[in-house]
Amino acid sequence: MTTRNLLTLVQWLSPSFPTGAYAYGQGLEAAISAGDIGSAATCRDWLAAVLRHGSGLTDAVLVCHAMAPDADLGALADLADALAPGAERLRETREMGHAFARTVSALTGQTLPPLPYPVAVGVAARGLGLDRELVATLYLAAFAANLVQVAVRFVPLGQTEGQGILADLHPVIETTVRHAAELDLHDIGSATLRADLASLSHETMETRIFRT
């Protein structure tokens, strides 16, 4: 691992990288509106469940498998699409992945195909020489930070409370990545029905700030 390659990955996963991540909230807006999330504690518990058992876990598995040089990208893309619980989440992973691939291709000169976001990140990270668990860890850290910012703005929470939630989620991210790295694609799955239902509910909200 080189420091420069690590910095490249940090740049790719930073809020300033043009994937449009700030516009997506994975249904958190609907959960806040319904009263399921109304405090730092409920936000932390919700996100911990999503990381351990929901899209956080499945995304980490996809990142790890996409980094394999012999990975079947078509099959991984189809699986990523199938794991989306609704139309908004499908659009989210596709649009973020396509934007990510376009920008990395422009910066590096390599041609990355349009892929769902976690698959695109895994493929792009192959050439960095970084451990796949490190890549998945930083991916989930960015994933969690983006969702915490949704809660900071719309619960609302204070910035310090938001940072406290992220700090509390560090061990959750670590254990999730260790688990994800051991999973075969046949073992992939999620069990966060309330979060999935919130995502579906978001599709029909009359007033929405986020795209998902």
Can you describe what's shown?
There is one protein chain. The protein is globular. 67% of the residues lie in helices and 0% in strands. α3 (40-53) runs parallel beside α9. It has helices spanning 3-12, 28-34, 40-53, 55-66, 73-83, 87-108, 117-125, 132-154, 159-182, 193-202. The chain has a single domain, classed as Orthogonal Bundle (Urease accessory protein UreF). The termini are far apart. It has 212 residues and is mostly helical. The protein is built from ten helices and no strands.
> What percent of residues adopt helix (DSSP H or I)?
55-70%
Order of helices and strands: HHHHHHHHHH
Tally of contiguous helical segments: 10
Question: What is the radius of gyration?
Answer: 16 Å
**How many β-strand stretches?**
0
Task: Characterize the overall form.
Answer: globular
CATH fold assignment: Urease accessory protein UreF
Number of domains: 1
Which segments are poorly predicted (pLDDT under 50) over 5 or more consecutive residues? none
What's the overall average pLDDT, rounded? 96
CATH class: Mainly Alpha
CATH architecture name? Orthogonal Bundle
The largest pleated sheet is described as: none
